[in-house]
Amino acid sequence: MIDAGVALNAAPCLAVDIGATKFECAIVAPDSSILSRSRVQVREHSSDLFGALIALISEVKADDAFEFVGVGCAGPMTSRGATVSPLNIPEWRNFELLGLMTDELGIRVHIDGDARALALAEGFFGGAVDDTSFASLVVSTGVGGALVLDGRLIDGQTGNAGHIGHLKVKEPGRLCSCGSYGCLEAEASGWAIEDFTGRPAKEADEATRRHCAELVGRALGTLSAVLDFSHSYVAGSVALGYGDEFFEVANKSARSVATLPYSSNVEIRRSSLGADGPILGAALVGWRGESS
């Protein structure tokens, strides 16, 4: 189980998930019970995203008192979310999220990457509870990821470790939202599939779906050989929407590159958390921040 700094007698957390498609807020108990939740669509509030975020939090919070909030936000970001620059939220570039939320809410605010938050949830509440080392990946509008090694979420120098979506998987490849070419996100994300097929990712043909799975498998298989873990957990509307075939193809692809004896048993699994994963992860960001 991952070391997430959560005590069973911890106070419920006010949790916020900030993604490219939606903002969600909920009150989460330490046993993973979700006591209240609501969401807004990003595209409906592009003129004042921060105002919509605060209104959403106020709606869920109502008259309840909280001492802290946990936030999982699309990245990259500077340390502890002082500024965030979600690649797929162009309205927020070097956006001072931590300070603005702290001033507006008047409580402690803990921020981490949304995919990193999901890894916390997978390791504490989900399928990875028996794993001390694993990768977590989200294949949705974008592609995000995180790495857990020896029971700890890997932070890196600036707190941005685990951006698996920006591994180069194709040469020369398509232009990515990060400015590079051939990244996994530029080839296998929902926005990329829609861009090169002219149709929503959910309408992609079989060849496109298989190609997406092959690239995901190649990336995760390579990482398993480099970092010595056996299991990867994948979430997101694209991967889960493509069903069993996605995971069959991804596993075959991963095993074709993870050929060292210690990595030959690599396995790519579905996230076990379903739609609750991101908000549970945001709550764990809060509890982790309070314990540090």
Describe the structure.
With 292 residues, the protein is an alpha/beta fold. It has two domains: 13-114 and 276-291, ATPase, nucleotide binding domain (Nucleotidyltransferase, domain 5), CATH 3.30.420.40; 127-272, Nucleotidyltransferase, domain 5 (2-Layer Sandwich). It is 35% helix and 20% strand. It has nine helices and ten strands. The protein has helices at 49-61, 97-105, 114-124, 184-188, 190-197, 206-227, 237-241, 243-257, 277-291, and strands spanning 13-18, 22-28, 34-41, 68-73, 108-113, 134-139, 143-149, 152-153, 231-235, 267-270. It has a five-stranded mixed sheet with strand order 3-2-1-4-5. Strand 6 (134-139) and strand 7 form a beta hairpin. The mean pLDDT is 94.
Measured distance between first and last alpha carbons: 18 Å
Shape: globular
Mean pLDDT: 94
Based on the structure given, which CATH architecture of the largest domain is correct? Answer: 2-Layer Sandwich
CATH superfamily of the largest domain: ATPase, nucleotide binding domain
Helical content, roughly? 25-40%
Global structural class: alpha/beta
Task: Figure out the total of helices.
Answer: 9
Strand-residue proportion: 15-25%
Order of helices and strands: EEEHEHEHEEEHHHEHHEH
